[in-house]
Amino acid sequence: VAPIYSEDAFGIVGETFTFPVEINQRIEEIIWKKNKDKVAERDGQNPPTYFTPLQGRSVLKENGNLTIFNLEKSDAGTYELHYWDSVNDGYLTFILDVLDPPSEPKISHSIEGDNVVLNCTSDFPWPVTYAWKISNDPRSHWSQEFSIPIEDIDATKKATCFITFSQTEKSSEISLIQCIS
């Protein structure tokens, strides 16, 4: 019996998700199951067959890669890939978790010395990437906290905090003048 190898994977509702499969040899037959029910199969070079949960929103490639479009909460579960080459068969197991997208980040501000310090927070339970953008400045500042000299602030300037997780981005904006009034 092949050793059962299991990998945790996750995506966000609405995203496109591809199971990270890399099989380098030529595969004769592929079967993907979700919670023990068949969801996709492919025999040699023939076009793949898809079953109810993934019909019309998935693609199974010859190398075993299965992509699901427009992820739904109900896609969460244990997926098993069973494949045969001309000699052996192999198994891969993935436990897919589908998360709600993060909500918009919250921005707080304080004054420290001659600077306004902006802080961006997310209630998302996984680590997110933070970035700040200031109007009229093409650069992004990749940090959760960002400080701006008070003398650089005028009534037109806004700061936007972006949080990114996987392929999903959310943002919030603040007018900088309200931070010093």
Automatic annotation (TrEMBL):
Keywords recorded for this protein, A-Z: Glycoprotein, Membrane, Signal
Any GO molecular function: signaling receptor binding
Major localization listed first in the record, in broad terms: membrane
Residue ranges annotated for the Immunoglobulin domain, each copy included: 6-99
A single cellular component GO annotation: cell surface
Location of the protein in the cell: Membrane
SMART domains attached to this UniProt entry: IG (SM00409)
Protein name: LFA3 protein
Organism: Tyrannus savana (Fork-tailed flycatcher)
Originating gene: Cd58
